[in-house]
Amino acid sequence: MPASTKKSVFSQGVVQGLPFILVIVPFGLLFGVVGTEAGLNLAEVMGFTLLVVAGASQFTAVSLMVDNAPVFLILAASLTVNLRMAMYSASLVPYLGTAPLWQRALVAYMQVDQVYAASVARYEARDEPVGKRVAFYFGVAAPIMPLWVLATWVGAVLGASVPPAFALDFAIPITFLALVGPMLRTVAHVAAAVVSAVVALSTTWMPTGTGVLVAAACACATGALVETWMERRT
């Protein structure tokens, strides 16, 4: 494939990734601030961001650490929150499975919700060679990943000096609402989402993090049951 073609597709990916900066930057700033306020030093906060690369799991782990939760509960809750990445990976195999190993390794490292959502939308709409698909994926990630790291560093350095008026915590719900909403395409998806929300809200009295685990399990079971029921009907 000509290099110019790959550059063109990469540029298209960059354009697709730019709007996500509006939520990625405050999201990263917020984690930097929260991590610092939780007692982590700058190296530990940046280690989270560079090694885990999963905002929701990072927030989950830090919140549980602040509550002095057992290590096994911190790991279980964080892994549960991040299990969607395994499903993302499985869904990308038909599109990127034949790419070179080093490219697949980078794809795995840079796999965040925004990059996945934008890339899969294109893959489902167009039949392109794997080289173009990889180029587009890297293009979407190009503006997101560096700014995620930079924003976290800035948040960690600033710490509690960030004015409350900035209300950075809006980034978390807005990010996931924007990503989850378009993915609710079937009755099973909607049922799982509703059940997870109801169970999570009704289990706030449980020890920190356990309500999330219960909600996730109930959502998975609901989605599977509804999917099975719909298949039997058809």
Radius of gyration: 19 Å
Secondary-structure element series: HHHHHHHHHHHH
- The number of strands is 0
Please tell me what the overall shape is. Answer: globular
> Major sheet, described briefly?
none
Instruction: Give helix % range.
Output: over 70%
Uncertain spans, ≥5 residues at pLDDT below 50?
A: none
pLDDT averaged residue by residue: 83
Strand content: under 5%
Overall tally of domains:
2
H/I helix tally: 12
Features:
Brnchd-chn_aa_trnsp_permease; 234 residues; single chain; 12 helices; mainly alpha
Topology:
Layout: H1 3-17, H2 21-37, H3 42-52, H4 55-66, H5 71-81, H6 84-96, H7 101-109, H8 113-125, H9 130-158, H10 171-180, H11 187-202, H12 210-233
Could you give a quick summary of the protein structure above?
This is Inner membrane protein YgaZ. The protein has 234 residues and is an all-alpha fold.
Please characterize this protein's 3D structure.
There is one protein chain. The protein has 234 residues and is mostly helical. It folds into 2 domains: 3-169, no CATH class; 184-234. It is built from 12 helices and no strands. It has helices at residues 3-17, 21-37, 42-52, 55-66, 71-81, 84-96, 101-109, 113-125, 130-158, 171-180, 187-202, 210-233. Helix 2 (21-37) crosses helix 10 (171-180) and helix 5 packs parallel to helix 12 (210-233). The longest helix has 29 residues, at 130-158. It is globular. The mean pLDDT is 83. Keywords: Cell membrane, Membrane, Transmembrane, Transmembrane helix, Transport. One of its GO terms (cellular component) is plasma membrane.
